[in-house]
Structures are given as C-alpha cells and as structure tokens.
Amino acid sequence: MGWIGEQVDSIKSIQFRQFITQTISLGMIVTSALIIWKGLMCVTGSESPVVVVLSGSMEPGFKRGDILFLHMSKDPIRAGEIVVFNIDGREIPIVHRVIKVHERPDTGEVEVLTKGDNNLGDDRLLYAQGQLWLQRHHVMGRAVGFLPYVGWVTIIMTEKPIIKYILIGALGLLVITSKE
Amino acid sequence: MHSFGYRANALFTFAVTILAFMCAIASFSDTLNSPTPTAHVQVLSINRFQKRPDGDDEVSMTFNISANLRSLFTWNTKQVFVFLAAEYETSKNSLNQVSLWDYIILEKEDAYFRIRSTNKYRFIDQGSNLRGKDFNLTLHWHVMPKTGKMFADKIVMTGYRLPEVYR
User: Fold this and answer.
1) Whole-structure pTM over 0.90, yes or no?
2) Which chain A residues have a beta carbon less than 8 Å from that of B106?
3) B145 preceded by cis ω (within 30°)?
C-alpha cells in the first residue's frame, strides 16, 4: 500500500505545465519528422522517396538492408535504369533493372520488362497473372543513390515488431519521467 | 547534464553526423573522375531469324564485344553493371530497347575485356518488323558506388542491319 502511495505521489509531483511542455515537444518532434518525409516526397516526386532493399535479387550491387534513394521525373523510362515498382495485388515494392523497353510514338506510353541482376530469368513470373509488361503507372521511382546497411533498422522493426513496441515504450517512459 | 544518457546521446548524434558527411564526400569524389571508356562490337553471325507462332519476330545472334571500362572505376566503386542493348525503331514503336547481354564487373582489371557470346536474353520484337531493319548496338554501363550517387552512361554504335529474309 505504501508503494502505491509513493507512485501516486511521484505522478502528482510532475508539474502540470511541465507535462504539457513535454507533450508539445514530443508532438513537435513527430510533426517535424512528418514534414521532412512529406517534403522529400515533393522534392523527389515519388510516393516513397526512400526504400529498403528486402531481397538478394540485385546482389552484389544491392544487398538486403541497404536503403535506396528514389527520384521520379517525367523523363521516359529507358533500359538499364533501376526502377521500383508495385505489382497489383502485392504490397511490397520490387527493385529491379529495366532490360526491355517498347515505347509508342504518339502517346509516349511505354511497356517495359524488368529483371533482378542476380536472378536467372526476367520478372514475368512476378507480374500479375497474364501480365507481360510493366507500364509507367506501375513504376514508383528510379533509384539514384544508395546507402549500405542503414535499412537493417527497418527490417528488424518489421520482422520483430516486439522491438518496435519496446522502443516506443521506452521513449514514452523517458519523456514522461525526465525532469527537464 | 553529465549523465550517461546525455553523453551517449551526444556521442551517437556526432558519430552519425560524421558518417553521413563522409558518405557525402565519398560520393562527391566520384564526380571528380572523368572516365574515357571505349568499346567495339562486331556481329559475327545471325544464327536464327524466324517469326514465332504468336506473330513476333525473333533473332538469335553471336557477337564479339571488346571494351575498356577501366577508367570508370574509382575507390568508391563497388561494381559496374554493363549491358549491350539493341535499339531500333518500328512503325508500331518509336523506340525499342532490347538487352541482349549483361555482365557485372567487380574488379578494375576485369573491365578490360573481350568476349564472344550469343544473346543472353531473347531478342523478340512486338510484331513482325525486323526484316531488313537497321539497328544500333549500345553498350550501357551503370556505375554502382560503395555509397552515394550512381552514374550511368553509354556508347552508341550504329550501322548494324538484320537480314532481309528469315533464316
């Protein structure tokens, strides 16, 4: 009983104004992270300006855990570009290289075929049933640069969500109990 | 102010900033390199030139590629992805690019090479437009760094022509 009384006392001792300040600063951190993310989306013209490489299909160039910086411009898609695309019905975007391009004259519409550098065959097996080509609207961006290893944080947090909860819980606890 | 938590946080932030700065400088050093690559492709024979059952033309050929791409390598280069594409125009498509062969070069010494090969990937048109078609063979390369910005460029070689009749 005395222990519960102590806990209640320590919670009451946190001054109300200080608590509000800390909540606001936490809110500011979250909002500025969101602003940076949305700003990056505008600048690069792509829905997700940064992706994590999840499979080994582009080794030895891109290994699992690398992050890729994407950029999407109105320039036509050409052979050799590394593109990130979504297949209808699949959630995870795929990062592979364009090996064939067929472009229509008037509309500029394009049909491309992709292949992972480390795969033996092209990506027709990955496309949706009956789909032979990718069109421009499937492509989310072109890879323009990359950083090694940084993506492992995201992979760990996705595959072992318990770590995500522990981190957020610890952060929340730190914010509440710090006296400054 | 001097607790373990604050010190660890300051150290971590500093380390990450320095690392990011080093990656940026490494990538920037790639722009100081001015490469002088050379390449030459010779089509040795057209092995097979037929119309497929679905109506599209298909070509199989053997070619000789010799190239010197050593000047593309810098200390920040992880690999150079090189591929040979046939490029041509038809009445249906304003541009067709078909990759015939590709290779991953990991070491600078391997970048001076001479190979003979048939096309790794099938050269299939969308339609039946390839008889007597003039086409370019373009050697593209993609320099993938250890960290930072990737560079791509190409050498266009013109003057190739497919036969007038199937064989």
Assistant:
1) no
2) 60
3) no
What are the pLDDT tens digits along chain A (180 aa)?
Answer: 677 777 766 666 667 887 788 788 888 888 888 888 888 778 777 677 788 888 888 888 888 888 888 888 888 889 989 998 888 877 788 889 999 999 988 888 899 999 998 888 888 888 888 888 988 888 888 888 888 888 888 888 778 878 777 877 777 776 666 654
The CATH number linked to B154 is: 2.60.40
Q: B99's torsion region: left (phi>0), alpha (psi -120 to 50) or beta?
A: beta
Residue B167 lies in a domain: no
Task: Say yes or no: B23 and B103 in one domain.
Answer: no
The pair of three-digit structure tokens given for residue B27, joined into one six-digit string: 């990538």
For A117, B26, B162, the CA distances from A37, given in Å and listed in that order, are 30, 25, 50
Alpha helices, DSSP H only, in chain B?
4-31
Q: Is residue A123 flagged as an active site residue?
A: yes
Chain A from 105 to 144: CB within 8 A of any B CB: 105, 111, 115, 117, 122, 143-144
CA-derived radius of gyration, chain B: 23
Domain of residue B25 covers 1-32
Counting the structural domains of chain B, the total is 2
Q: Which residue has the tokens 């290893």?
A: A149
B100 at A interface, C-beta within 8 A: no
Task: State whether residue B14 is helix, strand or coil.
Answer: helix
End-to-end CA distance of chain A: 29
**Would residue B46 count as lying in a domain?**
yes
Domain for residue B166, yes or no? Answer: no
Q: Are residues B5 and B80 in the same domain?
A: no
CA distance A61 to chain B (A): 7
Q: Are residues B6 and B57 in the same domain?
A: no
Pair (B27, B39) in one structural domain: no
Q: How many whole angstroms separate alpha carbon B163 and alpha carbon B160?
A: 10
Residues B61 and B24 placed together within one structural domain of the fold:
no
